[in-house]
Amino acid sequence: MLLSFRMLLMSVHFLMAGILGVLLGLCRPFNPDNSRLCARLYALPSKWIMGYKLKTEVGPLMDKPQSCVVIANHQSNYDLFIFGNVVPRRTVCIGKKSLKWVPLFGQLFWLAGNVLIDRGNAQKARKSMLTTTRTLQEKDTSIWVFPEGTRNLGKTLLPFKKGAFQMAITAGVPIVPVCVSTYSQHLKLNRWHSADIQIRSLPAIPTAGMTLDDMPRLMEMCREQMRDCIEAMDREVMAQQGRHAPVQSDSKRKGTASHPNL
User: Fold this and answer.
1) Residue 147: its pLDDT value, please?
2) pLDDT at residue 12 above 50?
3) Sequence-ordered list of residues with C-beta below 8 angstroms from that of 247, at least 6 positions apart, any chain
4) Which residues contact 80 (CB under 8 A, 6 or more apart)?
5) Span of the secretion signal (predicted)?
6) Are 24 and 39 in contact (CB under 8 A)?
7) Cβ 175 vs Cβ 204: under 8 Å
8) CA-based diameter of the chain, in Å?
9) Both ends of the chain: CA-CA distance in Å?
10) Are 153 and 75 in contact, with CB atoms under 8 Å apart?
11) Is 70 exceeded by the pLDDT of residue 250?
12) pTM for this structure?
């Protein structure tokens, strides 16, 4: 009963937030701070509707350089309602072109100044990436990217795609990793208190002086830092709930670690 009621409220909320977001976008189209405001429209009411408790430690993200590439782990479609609580000022997102067909949300996403990439067309995708690189260099705007490229469904981090790191190195801007604890497998929307969730940002990683030859090492370093951060948050959440996190041996971690796409 509670699950059905929440799903109904979330559907109404998604519709209303989409309408308000489109109106905001029409009033000031392509303003790069629209993304932050629209993210709050989705995230703040959904926190109450979904019934989760959120703890954030995002000082490095809020104090980020004027332009940077923000990278985050991608678990589920609920990420919009979770990460939306911490999107910083003048930060736009990269999404797949098919998002534009989602009623209201797609139009909102476009009007908010976000970047839509046609992953099926390599030439157009490269052109979009060049545009975002110029944005990082010239417009005091940051780019939010999910480097895994798809949802990991709350399992281990997937191999990172190189687009975010190529942008950061080419533009000479730092990378700010942001991690959310593993929530998608533990979210119980049929309970009043559905989940404990943590978001933590890591110190900015400078890319000044790096070349594309440094990209594989940079990708692996970011992935290791994020994986360690997620595991630490998962242990803290489980300790709060009186549970014990599964311990991964070094050999298992080495066996499951994925190398970035080169």
Assistant:
1) 93
2) yes
3) none
4) 39, 42, 43
5) none
6) no
7) yes
8) 57
9) 48
10) yes
11) no
12) 0.86
Q: How many residues does the chain have?
A: 262
Q: Which residues contact 76 (CB under 8 A, 6 or more apart)?
A: 151, 153, 154, 184
Residues 74/84, Cβ–Cβ less than 8 Å = no
The label of the residue with tokens 């790191």 reads 165
Q: Does domain 2-256 have CATH number 3.40.1130?
A: yes
Alpha-carbon gap, residue 198 to 1, rounded angstroms: 27
Phi then psi for 188, rounded to 5 degrees?
-115, 90
**Joined tokens for residue 107:** 């139009």
For residue 150, what are the contacts with CB-CB under 8 A and spacing of at least 6? Answer: 74, 158
List the one residue out of 258, 179, 189 whose CA is nearest residue 226.
179
Cα–Cα distance list, 73 to 30, 129, 194, 240 (Å) = 26, 20, 21, 22
Give pLDDT tens digits for 174-220. Answer: 999 999 999 998 899 999 999 999 999 999 999 999 999 999 999 99
Give yes or no for a contact between 148 and 223, defined as CB atoms under 8 angstroms apart.
no
Q: Rounded distance, CA 246 to CA 131, Å?
A: 43
